[in-house]
Amino acid sequence: MRQLQLYINNQRVDLFKDESVSLTQTIQNVKDIAKVFTEFTQTFSVPASSVNNKIFKHYYNSNVQGGFDARTKEPAYLEINNTPFKTGKIKLNRVGLKNNVAHTYHITFFGNVVDLKDILGDDLLSSLAALNDYSQVYDFNNVTNYIQNYSPNTNDNICVPLITHTDRMFYNGNASAHQYGNVAVHPGTSQNGINWNQFKYALRLQAIIEAIETKY
Predict the structure, then answer these.
(1) Count of domains in the chain?
(2) H or E element that contains 51
(3) In the listed set 84, 117, 150, which residue is the last one of a domain according to the structure?
(4) Mean of the per-residue pLDDT values for the chain?
(5) Which is more confident, 209 or 216?
(6) Helix (H) or strand (E) segment spanning residue 120
(7) Run of H or E residues at 211
(8) pTM value?
(9) How far is Cα 126 from Cα 4, in angstroms, rounded to an integer?
(10) Fewest CB within 10 A of the end CB: N or C in the chain?
(11) Closest listed residue to residue 93, CA positions, set 112, 68, 118
């Protein structure tokens, strides 16, 4: 007979004798970029014993200071017949009460391959040191050079797309249409166009993906 042992932060957890745990390997949601391949169990329950109350720091009691933080996952591992089986993390979902007394902790075990959002945390693009290699001087000459000379067939990861951040840009080929924002070229002394500082640098997605791979 196979018996399951669960450890959280290297402390063995008391289990119900009749509790069954079904370990499933799956892709949780291929449409959700925040989730990747992971091993997980269905939610299962452990008794609110003195041992488990100590592990979960009497989570049911809001008066306990410095209590268990259910918003984060805690390191854990599973054994079968005292043989290492899986390592990962445990998430506390809720506490079940009986007669207003803590009776059950409902938890979920997640394998070592965790959600992408857990890996990235609150990091921003500015935390990717590899992107510093693409720093540019923001001035008229640089911006116009990228607009006029950029070729998608090159390996240059920087471009200046024809997208303004504030002012409206349009095209009107009528010879009398001399207005700011009109990018049609007209003969004569009247000048159309838009300010160069309405444009910003852009970075190819491939460069950002490579920077993420480098850091994580």
Answers:
(1) 2
(2) helix 50-55
(3) 117
(4) 85
(5) 209
(6) helix 116-120
(7) helix 205-215
(8) 0.51
(9) 44
(10) N
(11) 68
